[in-house]
Design a protein that fits this description.
Length: 301
């Protein structure tokens, strides 16, 4: 992480505790490098995103460690989802979006020609705000991706290829549902329609579906915002467990949730700026930036 040099005026930065002309640097206390053990899964450098003329993300430089939970927090419209979408190039699907800068995954640039986007999105899976299972059986939801990618052959294709992977398919369904803490609740009704599950179960099924293509990373955009407190708590427990094997990057509006489940927290503020990034306990207990403190204590944002 390079040092964050804040040079804009207080007025530009919308800080409530500054007077005109005072530099943000004076009140913000530059935050220092976030030093973590282990390797970076993602390294974003000078990342900028525009939607048409709207400059949504400004010079984002951040290293995200592997096998941990990184929370992205900040007020509505500050660019959290935009940043998340940069990590598997989902912004490519938005016509108005233009991305400049670098994002490396395991040291390899994902914004270069020749990157296989299907492969990238297999490695970097995504779970959305509202559960969106396919209107198919629980089992079909899990095996859909691997079958599509040709990782599992059944039916006509298996006969043509002389290869029947039905045992592998059963194993995969069980492994993914266990991985998403759903197996015990659904193992006796795998052929039931997924739309018959509760909202929380549907969201865990979507996580199981994401696990089925063997990702390294799970991007989660407010995965519990549509759920009740009990279902939310199950998702939170699951996210913490998943981080033992996967790198999880999660957008949340819920600061308590970020504090509960993440190892490190990145705070974006209005205007698409990454204002502070560090160990979650430090961010919530002792933020270096005045603006972050104001945001966390509810004074603005
Ligand atoms: N598809 C899009 N087309 C045009 N502008 C967009 C698009 N998506 C996001 N924006 C704009 O980019 C800025 C950042 O939006 P983004 O959704 O990334 O913020 P966010 O922090 O995730 O917000 P929220 O918490 O409300 O989901 C906003 O000004 C938003 O209006």
């Amino acid at each position: 992480m390079s040092e964050h040099i804040a040079t804009e005026t207080a007025t530009d930065a919308q800080s409530p505790n500054t007077t005109a002309g005072e530099t943000v640097e004076a009140v913000e206390d530059e935050w220092t490098e976030y030093d973590f053990a282990g390797d970076a899964k993602f390294s974003a450098t000078d990342l900028n995103v525009w939607y048409g003329d709207d400059h949504a993300l400004h010079d984002i430089t951040i290293d995200i460690p592997e096998n941990s939970v990184t929370a992205l927090i900040g007020p509505s419209g500050c660019g959290k989802s935009t940043f998340l979408r940069c990590l598997n190039r989902m912004n490519d699907r938005i016509k108005a979006a233009r991305v400049e800068g670098s994002v490396e995954l395991d040291g390899r640039e994902i914004y270069q020609e020749g990157v296989d986007l299907v492969e990238l999105r297999k490695r970097v899976g995504q779970v959305f705000q509202s559960p969106n299972p396919f209107p198919k059986s629980i089992r079909e939801n899990i095996v859909y991706g691997p079958r599509k990618h040709g990782d599992i052959q059944t039916g006509l294709l298996s006969r043509l290829l002389g290869r029947d992977d039905s045992d592998a398919e059963d194993d995969l369904v069980e492994r993914c549902l266990r991985g998403a803490a759903l197996w015990d609740e659904v193992h006796d009704r795998l052929d039931d329609n997924a739309l018959g599950l509760s909202g929380g179960q549907q969201q865990r099924l979507c996580i199981a579906r994401a696990l089925a293509v063997d990702p390294d990373v799970l991007l989660m955009d407010e995965p519990a915002s549509a759920l009740d407190p009990i279902a939310t708590s199950k998702i939170e427990d699951l996210v913490e467990d998943l981080a033992e094997e996967y790198t999880v990057v999660i957008v949340t509006h819920n600061m308590q949730q970020a504090a509960r489940i993440s190892d490190q927290t990145a705070v974006f503020l209005t205007g698409g700026e990454l204002v502070e990034y560090g160990d979650t306990d430090q961010i919530f207990e002792n933020p270096q930036s005045q603006r972050v403190e104001d945001y966390i204590t509810g004074k603005f944002g």
